[in-house]
Write a structure and sequence with these properties.
Blueprint lengths: L7 E10 L3 E7 L13 E4 L2 E7 L4 E7 H6 L10 E6 L18 E10 L4 E6 L13 E4 L2 E8 L3 E6 L1 H6 L10 E6 L1 H18 L1
Antiparallel strand pairs: 1-2, 1-6, 2-5, 3-4, 3-6, 4-5, 7-8, 7-12, 8-11, 9-10, 9-12, 10-11
Length: about 200
């Protein structure tokens, strides 16, 4: 589990394509890998991946086709930046919301509004996820815990503060980019419960 509070960004060093998976090597920020052991979970652009090698700041991950099909990791190239977060511990301060690292879908950036020190994004909602988006609700985008702004019929706004832009890869997000989306699980549970109750009342 993660909190959606991104620790910093890493740089893709190498991508090796194997028969049915790829191996990604990411250069993490200095100190990120302290006490990290093989088999640990790291959120890479919000995707929970298992560390194959991680004694240094060069982290190596194997990514299977199932994960590539559902996330933006399939579009990664050498020198690309990715958001990184280590898994939470019992002592972790949860400044965001609980994030599993299991991506529900991807959204395309439809509009970028750059301001003096902040940025607004309009992002398309995958059709099968639209019922889970509410104004002021939570969503994890590329692993970053964010509050949903205005929700339109098939898209939603996100308002990024200077701190988020400084620490994460969102400062470089551009029109047309694809973003990993993980919906807040408590929102899913609430919506599905209400739907079930309403169905039972009609039955």
């Amino acid at each position: 589990m993660f909190t959606g509070i991104v620790s910093g960004s890493g740089t893709v060093q190498r991508i090796i394509k194997n028969e049915d998976y790829i191996t990604i090597t990411v250069r993490a920020p200095k100190g990120f890998s302290k006490n990290l052991i093989k088999g640990s979970s790291i959120a890479v652009n919000g995707v929970c991946l298992t560390v194959k090698k991680g004694k240094t700041d060069n982290l190596e991950f194997d990514v299977i086709d199932e994960t590539l099909d559902k996330t933006n990791l399939k579009s990664l190239a050498k020198s690309d930046k990715v958001n990184l977060e280590r898994s939470m511990t019992a002592a972790t301060e949860i400044g965001g919301h609980l994030v599993s690292g299991h991506i529900h879908g991807v959204g395309k950036v439809l509009k970028v509004i750059n301001k003096a020190k902040t940025k607004d994004l309009l992002i398309k909602i995958p059709q099968d996820l639209r019922e889970y988006f509410f104004y002021k609700g939570y969503v994890a985008l590329n692993g970053c815990s964010l509050t949903i702004g205005k929700v339109l019929k098939s898209s939603f706004y996100i308002h990024l503060i200077p701190e988020t832009l400084t620490i994460t890869t969102f400062k470089d997000i551009a029109l047309g980019d694809i973003i990993n989306i993980e919906v807040d699980q408590s929102t899913i549970n609430t919506v599905e419960t209400v739907k079930r109750v309403m169905f039972e009342k009609k039955a």
